[in-house]
Specification:
The structure holds 2 protein chains of 2 kinds.
Chain A lengths: L3 E7 L11 H9 L4 E9 L15 E4 L7 H15 L3 E3 L3 H9 L1 H6 L9 H6 L5 H8 L6 E4 L2 H8 L6 E4 L5 E4 L2 H15 L3 E5 L3 E11 L4 E12 L5 E6 L3 H14 L2 E11 L4 E7 L6 H6 L4 H10 L14 E3 L9 H10 L3
Parallel strand pairs in A: 1-2, 1-4, 2-3
Antiparallel strand pairs in A: 5-8, 6-7, 6-8, 9-10, 9-12, 10-11, 11-14, 12-13
Chain B lengths: L7 E2 L4 E4 L4 E4 L2 H11 L4 H11 L4 H17 L8
Antiparallel strand pairs in B: 1-2, 2-3
Helix pairs in contact in B: 2-3
The chains are: A alpha+beta, B alpha+beta.
Chain lengths: ~350, ~80
């Protein structure tokens, strides 16, 4: 059977110490037996390593930061589309998802498909809305609240016990053991991600993560739970292992089914010392450790592309338990000429 | 007392709990004890066998065995609370 040709644009080429999911997503797509994919990288920074990985990324274009607004993004995507005739875009950053969801119809009119949650689904699982989300769907979440100022935080912390998790709007979380520490994290997080900052009850236990894919009809297409084995100082998994725990499958199925989630998601959970599962966060996109799921038998990026193209995808029924990933860093040697071409023309 | 059914134990003493992702390395005596528990032997019989097999008095052996079983319980490898 001949493989279906498809041009897929992917963001998140920042394969750095806090990696974006772009490169593992591309690896999954490239390994498909059914797809013959041309990969177009979409980058925000000139030094995103994926730009220079020519065995994985056929061509890269710079795109404007989300702060420049969705119209600037759309305009740039149309310029790229004119040259590359894109079939699909897979956005991989939380911060850009809002714009891509808002542009879904305009992109579709231009012939570019996406496979994203609705704005309602996206907002509902927002960190600051998580307590309401838990209540609505019957899922245990740590107590949490959003704060917009240090005064606000001071008032909130009076009713909480230390340590408290101080979390950024999109990324990053720190345990604060005192008000002074909380203030320092508040300033760090607002400088980087803006307002609000989320204060969340600290739950002691073992963190587990689940990658899941929903078809928007309430069906769980893919689900692989993972336990981090090696965590960097940025809290990112540098090694992990697939695990088999029925309660994790149940919670993923419950969330995908009840929310009718469309697209990839990552659930961050913690199992407390009393064996209770708390949902810490729902990330509304494929996580950077997705290649572990591919290696364990669930090629989620391939399934996502097929769903986006309207191809039939049967839910995965198994994966290898005890499959590990170990991340590594690797130095590429890049000629200045490539870098200068990218910085001057915005494409490579 | 049982070792949880899904616990994987390899010949070289590597123990993997697929529910939690935890893994452990047993020394030879630990591996022997865990194998005997898996085979369904009770603690008295395990103690008899170990006293016969090794140069150890019964009191010392039973103390070590109790410590070891407590560790297995703490690490969530046993089906029942001790």
């Amino acid at each position: 059977m001949s493989r279906r040709k498809v041009t897929v644009a992917v963001t998140g080429l920042n394969n750095i110490d806090s990696p974006g999911p772009g490169i593992p997503v591309i690896r999954g797509i490239k390994e498909s037996d059914d797809l013959d994919a041309r990969i177009i990288g979409l980058a925000y920074e000139h030094l995103e390593p994926g730009i220079y990985m020519k065995d994985l990324v056929d061509k890269t274009y710079m795109i404007p930061y989300p702060a420049e607004g969705k119209d600037a993004l759309f305009e740039r995507l149309m310029e790229i589309h004119e040259k590359e005739n894109l079939d699909i875009i897979i956005p991989n950053f939380d911060a850009e998802l809002f714009s891509f969801i808002k542009l879904e119809n305009r992109l579709a009119d231009a012939g570019i498909k996406t496979y994203l949650p609705s704005i309602h689904q996206f907002e509902e699982r927002n960190k600051s809305n998580l307590p309401a989300f838990g209540e609505k769907y019957g899922i245990t979440v740590p107590r949490g609240t959003e704060v917009f100022s240090i005064q606000d935080m001071n008032n909130t912390l009076r009713s909480m016990n230390y340590p408290v998790m101080v979390k950024g709007k999109y990324y990053d979380a720190y345990p604060a053991h005192s008000f002074e520490q909380a203030v320092s994290y508040f300033e760090k997080l607002t400088a980087k991600w803006g307002f609000p900052v989320i204060l969340q009850e600290f739950i002691k236990g073992t963190e587990v993560n689940i990658i899941a894919l929903g078809d928007g009809e309430g069906n769980l297409i893919a689900c692989v739970p993972m336990r981090k084995q090696y965590i960097t100082d940025k809290g990112k998994a540098w090694g992990g292992i697939t695990i088999d725990d029925e309660s994790l499958h149940r919670i993923a199925k419950k969330i995908i089914t009840m929310t009718k989630w469309k697209g990839g998601m990552e659930l961050e959970l913690i199992r407390s010392s009393t064996n209770e599962l708390y949902l810490l966060e729902i990330n509304p996109r494929i996580p950077a450790w997705v290649y572990l799921a591919v290696g364990a038998g669930q090629n989620i990026p391939e399934a996502l592309v097929k769903l986006t193209l309207g191809m039939e995808v049967n839910p995965f029924t198994r994966y290898d338990v005890g499959k590990m990933f170990i991340r590594y860093s690797y130095d590429m040697i890049v000629d200045l000429e490539l870098f200068s071409r990218l910085t001057t023309t915005g494409e490579l | 007392m049982f070792i949880k059914e899904n616990i994987a134990l390899s010949e070289n003493g590597f123990v993997f709990n697929p529910s939690t992702g935890d893994s452990f390395t047993m020394n030879n005596t630990g591996k022997e004890v865990i194998m005997m528990i898996k085979e369904g032997k009770d603690l008295t019989l395990i103690a008899d066998i170990m006293v016969d097999r090794y140069d150890v008095d019964r009191n010392t052996l039973e103390r070590y065995l109790a410590d070891f079983l407590n560790d297995l319980n703490v690490y969530n490898l046993l089906e029942e609370e001790l």
